[in-house]
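Fold this sequence, please.
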Amino acid sequence: MMVSGLARMTRLVRVVLCLAVVWLAPLASAQEQPAPEPPAPAISASPVEGADQAMKERLERIYDQIETLRALNVAVADGVVTISGLVPDETISQEALDIARRVDGVVAVQDRTHVSVAVRERLSPFVQRSVSMWNKTVAAAPLILVALFVFVVVAGLALWVASWKGLWRRVTPNLFVGDLVSQAIRVVGVVLALVVALNLAGATALMGAILGGAGVIGLAVGFAVRDSLENYISSIMLSLRQPFRANDHVVIEGNEGKVVRLTSRATILMTLAGNHLRIPNAMVYKAIILNYTRNPERRMDFQLGVDANDDPQAAIATGVSALAALDFVLDDPEPSGVIDTVGDSNIVLSFRAWINQTDADFLKARSQAIRATKMAVEEAGFTLPEPIYRLRIDQFPPGVKVDVSEPAREAPKPKAKPVFAAPDAVSVKPEDHLDAKIAAERRETTDKDLLDSGRPVE
């Protein structure tokens, strides 16, 4: 039943589709066919007496009024117009044919003209156009001089206003934006002067062509220097946002170092190894920035392992007490320790403590903290386990006897206690070598620094 119903439904759909195709096909064909052209006027079977002569005289009078068509010859027979003669170029011939077709009673037009190859004939239109343009220029010379004077005045005024860099730097957030405003006033002023001068001279068509060409060129240049424009805009935004200060210790997209300066193209870092690192501002603007200098308090973490048979909580208390006794470790927040993982033969403990980076170098402080914690844990009797490996041999070669009994353990010999320097005796004072190099470079370089200590850091 279900199969037969499905078959009937399929046949019904096919019938409906066929009817739709038959019904819509005429409509589609009607829409696709172009509109019929109007029928051409009928040609009279008997010629009108004197019509050919009238058409010839009419065309000759018209051609006599047009300087470029005066040399053409016109012949008319039974309504067929034949135009002959030499023309300087094909456009003049086409103009004569178009005029002939518009005369009433013309049945057809034959072109018997030839383009002249004589130098004089070819140069004559060009000379005439040049003379005509020169005459128009001479006639419009006073207006052109006035337009030129207006252009010089408006452009000079704009350049004079743009030269007030001190004003623009005071009213804008930083030097970079002030220079950008000055350049924008200069460009806008020159363009405005050009538009006013062209309008005054009546060269609106030329102005439209210049503006259109400038738009196309600007679009092409924009696509060509898209990366440079993105980097330039990023520089503006960074100079306004101020995400860091000079000498800040930052990490930008995995690149760590101290900030030297922010220029209009890149952010200059000095790595911890003393090398210069230049990062494009487009990357810096979109990057995740980690700033260690913004908050001088920083937490250090490290791990120690103790034997699986030892009490991990007691080991944690011993290590935390050793950390709290260090001068460079902050009391608030207090140092702490937790059980990280439990392995087959050891227990891994994680210790945490806070320091002030303005008073202590992070790496030195962490090193001394690990050393002090390890010494305290060992002196308290806790064992720092060594890796244990188990070997299993299932079969031995024939004739080989192996003693698998456990050997007697000898009493451990007492080891001489090593002499350690007290943790507080090792200096953890921050190094200032990089700071001195950065300060010296900032004094010697002539590049503009967009970082402003007077603006808040975001």
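The two ends are 75 Å apart (CA to CA). The longest strand covers residues 297-307.
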